[in-house]
Fold these 2 entries.
Entry 1:
Amino acid sequence: MRSAAHGFPIVLSDLTLEYPPHGASPAHVALHGLSLTIQPGEVLGLLGSAGSGKSTLAKVLSGVAFEPRAGGDVRPVITGGEANVLGRRLRTLTRRKVPEFRFHVGYLPQDAAATLPPDRTVAEIVGEPILERDRRYNRRALQTRVATMIDAVRLPLGMLDKYPYQLSGGQRQRVALARALVLGPSLLIADEPTAGIDLTVRDAVAQLIGELRDREHHSFSALIISHDLPVLRRTADRIAVLDRGELAALGTIDEVFHDPGHPYVMALAGALDAGHAVIDDLEDGPGA
Ligand SMILES: Nc1ncnc2c1ncn2[C@@H]1O[C@H](COP(=O)(O)OP(=O)(O)OP(=O)(O)O)[C@@H](O)[C@H]1O
């Protein structure tokens, strides 16, 4: 895929995302006027109150919002501004181009662990994106690649023949992460990658993301939605904070929390001072 002339993996200019009206529900603006740039090689952490638009942004930037709809699924649409991802203007992304675009963006959805296909083995699940891209991919090379990814997310190779129901939630989450990374994407968009994972494994996931960034220099970037501060400290160069669909703060973790101007960021900083490492207990923001 051609990279952006400016080289930035993600450029958002005054981006507004909206869910169209459906059934009795009116249209809903989930994100309003967001401008943000992710630098080549940068990992940006994204925090925010519940319903502030984090997952909506992830769905659009990963391209899943542009895939054919399943059932009554309502997808967000870009109603203002522009999002440029890996050199593609998403407003002009045609349906035919979506699969190719998605091969370059690893996406770990929020509910990834709970939605693994129940009738496939771990090896099949992790290897599927490779076969979707190339049905005739060499089977031995496929096995090796899948095993390497399983190892990278610190799962034993004995898991390869297991089915999702035989795994714990944390193991399933790591299978989903291995799948998101199996094509060696230049951009990872991960929605709560360490949710439901115990502390030691959380460390390993943070380490893996950090390693990818360091090893690939300027060719691997990521947007990591997380409320887990130790994970963000290890992986994120900067963080962005959303509140009610708008950008509330942007900077390094220290910059953002040292001088919080926005009430929601102040509340987060207060939670940190009170010793909370995982700051998702402010879901509705202050005063809600
Ligand atoms: N399918 C949908 N149709 C209409 N509105 C939606 C839909 N999905 C989400 N929304 C609304 O869009 C807003 C943003 O939702 P989103 O899931 O992006 O928030 P979030 O920041 O990821 O929240 P959380 O931290 O709880 O996951 C919310 O007000 C939500 O109710």
Entry 2:
Amino acid sequence: MTATEPAVGLRGAALSYGPRTLWDGLDLDVAPGEFLAVLGPNGSGKTSLLRVLLGMQELTAGSVRIAGEPARRGNDRIGYIPQQRTLEGTVTVRGSDLVGFGLDGHRWGVGWRGRRERKQRVDRALRAVDAAEYARMPLGLLSGGEQQRVRVAQALVGDPAVLLCDEPLLSLDLAHQRKVSSLIARQAEEAGAAVLFVTHEINPVLPLVDRVLYLVDGRFRIGTPDEVMNSATLSELFRTDVEVARVGGRLVVAGTDGAESHHVHEVDA
Ligand SMILES: Nc1ncnc2c1ncn2[C@@H]1O[C@H](COP(=O)(O)OP(=O)(O)OP(=O)(O)O)[C@@H](O)[C@H]1O
């Protein structure tokens, strides 16, 4: 990747499932170090966008590049925090194993020195999310939020150039929401990662957000939070009257007929 190359580049990108178009004509460059919030109602195609970047889903039209190369599966430049799904109690993979998968494809697995360095990195990543004690525990025995912290460690352990986060704060308590948000922000600010952060609730990360991609029913808007998160733009996007107010530095969105009711459900009160 050169200095001028975007970390993520979509050109004329479209994704349809059968007759249903999730989005079309999407041109988006995400620069190294940029934090992009991806918003939109259920089913608007936010997770599908991340799957395209992961090389798990083909575009219907257009192109996608990651750090200057076509998107492909198993790209070790990408860290991915998937949408939370609680693992069954029968899952016996240990915390340190799951985090170690985040380094697969890297050179740390080779030789005793590599193995020692690999273990150090895994331990450091687990400590960063207060999950050191889960290193040897079967993941199925951990709570949803504890599992989530291990997934965050997995996504960050490989020092990714692109960090894809699918509702990463969902099951975390307030202290861990803050911790995980700041780890993600640090990966952007200090390591220059491009962050795509899918969320139903922008407020906990609003201070970190450079731009917003808002998807609604095949339409979308891209811009700074002020450019997108205002009554005129969201009313046009939702094709109904939407009121956006700033209250004490927080955004309150009303009038999207329940589709976006999450905006008034404050998780970071
Ligand atoms: N492989 C597939 N084949 C057909 N339809 C699919 C496929 N994957 C996703 N969809 C549909 O595409 C739509 C968008 O799904 P996606 O998971 O991207 O939405 P989302 O914006 O992430 O939603 P949510 O907020 O509920 O997580 C959904 O209606 C889903 O059923």
